[in-house]
Amino acid sequence: QVQLVESGGGLMQTGGSLRLSCAASGRNFSSYPMGWFRQGLGKEREFVASISWSGGISLYAESVKGRFTISRDHANNMVFLQMNSLKPEDTAVYHCAATDIFYDRSPPTAQNEYTYWGQGTQVTVSS
Questions:
Q1: pLDDT on residue 105
Q2: Per-residue DSSP letter, 89
Q3: Residue 27 buriedness (CB in 10 A; 0-12 / 13-18 / 19+)
């Protein structure tokens, strides 16, 4: 059974940093892209960042570009999201996502291209 478990969320002041981690089990995702999505209270879930199977290509939502960095650790089947210069509008539940469909170039950014999802970790940024 595939499981994605996020950690690292919490309460942070504006301008602060957090690092989210996602540990995958039940399947080796080193040959597949992974991503992060978020859902604010009363909002639709939205794309944040995704990373190719090799780690060589990363894509970001415009709202986080230059502030967030996605990375992965193949050996430990993990993906990370480094979040800097946090803003109150970054407040959301952050979900890790994975797919077992091979993409040889750019990682997907659409939710329906991901099969597996974590339960999420809450990030709250106070002003």
A1: 84
A2: G
A3: middle
Chunk the chain into consecutive blocks of 10 residues (it has 127) and report each block's average pLDDT, rounded to whole numbers.
97 98 97 97 97 96 98 97 98 97 91 97 97
Sign of CA pseudo-dihedral 97, 102, 104, 105 = negative
User: Which residue is listed with tokens 């800097």?
Assistant: 84
- Angstrom distance (rounded) from CA 94 to CA 118: 9
* Contacts (Cβ under 8 Å, ≥6 apart) of 41: 91, 92
Q: What is the DSSP string of 30-69?
A: TTS-EEEEEE-TTS--EEEEEE-TTS--EEE-TTTTTTEE
pLDDT on residue 28: 96
> What's the chain's length in residues?
127
Q: How many whole angstroms separate alpha carbon 22 and alpha carbon 88?
A: 22
Q: Which two tokens stand for residue 50?
A: 């995704």
Side chain identity at residue 54, one-letter code:
S
CB-based contact 41:87 (threshold 8 Å): no
pLDDT of residue 103: 87
